[in-house]
Write a structure and sequence with these properties.
The chain contains three helices and 66 strands. The protein has 743 residues and is mainly β.
Length: 743
């Protein structure tokens, strides 16, 4: 064989030739089909929502005698164009079959498959011929009602329990128009399905041409209730229940079921206790039954009660134990019949088997060695014996009472609360605490010198405290000493080259001086103003001891408190400390600001009247107030009395050591017409009063000046009538003459 050549077997050559021939045939058929009808559709298949819009282009690259769209909706008449569009804005024809045709050498056409879909009007789930209460283990049928959906062969109904997919139903009907379907599924609920929620979901799978997310509609949840026969918890109620002699014990019969079961205990023929809890003792019958009952059924659990006696103690030791020493514990089992001992275990708190399990069924006394530490002070120890009934695999465990031990141990000083290096600020005192754990409780003392001892947990240190002090914690188990080094720190804040009050808007330097931090190093310096942290970014410069920051105070900063803090870290450790300077209070002087609300720029003044105006100004130092009425006319007062003789323009001047502020005021003279109006009203009132008096006097003379007598009066025409309250009196009057009046 030549290099780079290869040979093929005869069968493989035959297969290869057949493959090429088949491929050529397929290609020829496709090419022939395209040659038969030389049109191209912009979409090979369309999926449209019922009532939706659709548009598909049909184009050709050959010359032709005419092309068009044939359809029951949106047809396009034959045209000589090379691109035509079938377009429908509201597609409602379910059976529509549009096709594009062309007259080339002969007429040919290409059909456009159209799928019109409609989501269901409603989807609901129900139980067939049954209420919602079910019995565990029985079979039930769920039905999903899907109304008015199309096309049904693209429909999938999914069944869910909660969020879990249970089943899927598909359809083979080839109906393009909307239909109603009612698929169903069988379920067999168990007790865990009580309260389960079922639902069904109708989903249209319309392929790649359909919507990105398949259209779907979901039913409401169907919540079911499952009734089940009681199941007694055998873990909490074993078949053999031990009880210690001379002790009582509570056993619990817990049963799960729906409806909730009632619990009863059968102690004898007529001895029944209705309760979940039963108190047993050595007088309880040997055979007892728990009965759990509900409307579905009854479950019974039989068990045997037997008496045990087991104890734990120390061997040849009654005093408190000392941490680190070794002691023996003994477990005595006095009665286990009719069981045999197959396992003995030792326990401390919740730690199982402090030593390996001992299997020695031929003796009734077991020992174990322990070496307690300080964590074991107050610990509870006990032993348990696993028992097995003769000839059976039924087991039981008997447990001793707890043995509580007391462990004495040497004091341990809390080094976290009492570091080996303690800083204190110069001029300040500080309390340090020496806390020690030990049993018995240790006594605490501080050694400040040869004969200087302080008996207290708390020691107050200051710059006068010796550099080296010791905390001593001591009890009957031993003594522990903690050496502490005291060093003095000093930090201060001040202004740089400035001692006078500051001027608002000007820039000043603040300086933080840290005079002694050894053996600590500075890892962080921060600047603070009142309650605002870090008025500048934190400075991390451990190689210098003086730090500065620039400030530009405004009038709101007058009286503000500034301070600096240095975060320190002990060499070679993670212990940190923070030292804080005393507060620096600054005084800010600022130019006067005149209150324009109380002194408007235009002030009216009435002719013949005077008025007071006030010029108030805020500033530091407090400004002096003056009024400029003319070239040489100046009034030094906050209050100015103005009248019609005051110049038209006056100025208020507020001045302090920082600057001067001027407020110009325009006096507007106004006439006062109030006296003229009051006089006119008085004349009108007087005139009306005169007219009234005149009219009243005429009336009085006419109606009141005549004199009459009722004596011997008789009705006659000669007698006159007198008016009474505007009415004619029926009583005749006799008029007196002048002589009668004089008589």
């Amino acid at each position: 064989m030549q290099k780079g050549s290869f040979s093929l077997t005869i069968p493989f050559r035959i297969f290869y030739l057949l493959f090429l021939g088949f491929g050529f045939l397929c290609f020829s058929q496709i090419a022939g089909a395209q040659a038969e009808c030389p049109v191209q559709l912009s979409q090979q298949r369309v999926v449209v929502r019922y009532g939706g819009s659709v548009a598909v282009n049909c184009s050709t690259s050959v010359s032709h005698k005419g092309m068009g769209w044939e359809a029951s909706e949106g047809a396009v008449a034959m045209t000589r164009d090379s691109l035509i569009t079938w377009r429908v804005s509201n597609l409602t024809e379910w059976e529509i079959k549009p096709y594009c045709y062309i007259n080339h050498k002969e007429q040919c056409q290409v059909e456009l498959p159209v799928i019109i879909y409609k989501t269901p009007d409603n989807v609901s789930i129900s139980i067939v011929k049954h209420r919602r209460t079910m019995i565990a283990g029985r079979q039930y049928q769920l039905q999903c009602d899907v109304q008015n959906v199309a096309p049904v062969h693209n429909l999938t109904v999914k069944w869910y329990k909660g969020q879990t997919l249970l089943n899927q139903t598909t359809f083979t009907e080839d109906s393009k128009t909307p239909v109603n379907v009612n698929p169903s599924v069988l379920i067999r609920p168990d007790r865990d399905d009580d309260g389960a929620q079922y639902r069904c979901e109708a989903e249209l799978d319309l392929g790649a041409e359909g919507p990105q997310y398949p259209p779907n509609k979901t039913s409401d949840f169907l919540s079911i209730t499952v009734y089940s026969k009681p199941i007694i918890n055998e873990t909490k109620l074993p078949s053999k229940v031990p009880v210690f002699r001379e002790y009582s014990e509570e056993i619990v019969c817990e049963a799960e079921g729906n409806p909730k079961p009632t619990i009863s205990w059968i102690l004898g023929t007529n001895d029944i206790v209705y309760n979940e809890v039963l108190t047993i003792s050595e007088s309880t019958p040997e055979y007892v039954s728990c009965v759990a009952n509900n409307s579905v059924g009854t479950t019974t659990r039989n068990f045997t009660v037997f008496i045990q006696d087991i104890s734990i103690s120390t061997v040849n030791h009654t005093e408190p134990m000392t941490a680190g020493k070794q002691y023996d514990l003994q477990c005595s089992i006095k009665y286990v019949a009719p069981f045999k001992i197959v396992d003995v275990g030792w326990y401390k708190w919740n730690k199982n088997n402090i030593i390996e399990t001992i299997k020695t069924p031929d003796i009734l006394t077991y020992t174990v060695q322990i070496c307690p530490d300080k964590a074991d002070n107050g610990s509870q120890f006990w032993c348990e014996a696993k028992l097995e009934a003769e000839g059976t695999q039924r087991t039981s465990t008997m447990k001793s009472a707890n043995l509580s031990i007391t462990v004495h141990f040497k004091p341990i000083i809390n080094e976290t609360k009492l570091p080996s290096v303690v800083p204190v600020f110069r001029g300040y005192s500080k309390e340090i605490v020496c806390e020690a754990e030990g049993n018995p409780k240790p006594t605490i003392s501080w050694i400040l010198g040869t004969n200087d001892i302080v008996y207290n947990e708390v020691l107050t240190i200051s710059e006068s405290t010796p550099e080296n002090v010791s905390c001593v914690a001591e009890n009957s188990a031993g003594k522990t000493t903690r050496q502490v080094k005291v060093f003095i720190q000093d930090i201060s804040i001040s202004t740089v080259n400035h001692t006078e009050p500051m001027i608002a808007g000007k820039q000043y330097d603040l300086q933080c001086s840290i005079k002694y931090v050894a053996p600590f190093k500075i890892v962080d310096v921060g600047w603070y103003k009142q309650n605002k942290n870090n008025i500048t970014e934190t400075i991390k410069t451990p190689d210098i001891l003086t730090y500065t920051v620039q400030i530009r105070p405004d009038r709101a900063d007058n009286g503000s408190q500034f301070w600096c803090e240095a975060k320190l870290e002990a060499e070679g450790t993670q212990r940190t400390s923070t030292m804080k300077s005393a507060n620096l209070s600054i005084t800010v002087h600022f130019k006067p600001i005149i209150n324009e609300n109380k002194l408007p720029s235009v002030v009216p003044v009435f002719r013949g009247y005077s008025e007071e105006i006030v010029c108030e100004a805020e500033g530091n130092p407090k400004p002096t107030i003056s009024w400029i009425l003319g070239t040489n006319d100046i009034v030094y007062n906050e209050v100015l009395t103005i009248s019609e003789s005051t110049p038209e323009y006056v100025s208020c001047v507020a001045e302090n050591s920082v600057g001067t502020t001027t407020r110009k005021v325009n006096m507007v003279l106004k006439e006062d017409y109030l006296p003229l109006i009051a006089g006119l009203i008085a004349v009108i009132v007087a005139f009306i009063s005169v007219i009234f008096i005149f009219i009243y006097s005429i009336y009085y003379k006419t109606a009141k000046m005549g004199h009459y007598s009722l004596k011997d009066a008789k009705p006659s025409a000669q007698n006159g009538d007198i008016a009474q309250n505007g009415k004619h009196s029926p009583i005749p009057m006799k008029k007196f003459s002048q002589s009668d009046i004089l008589a």
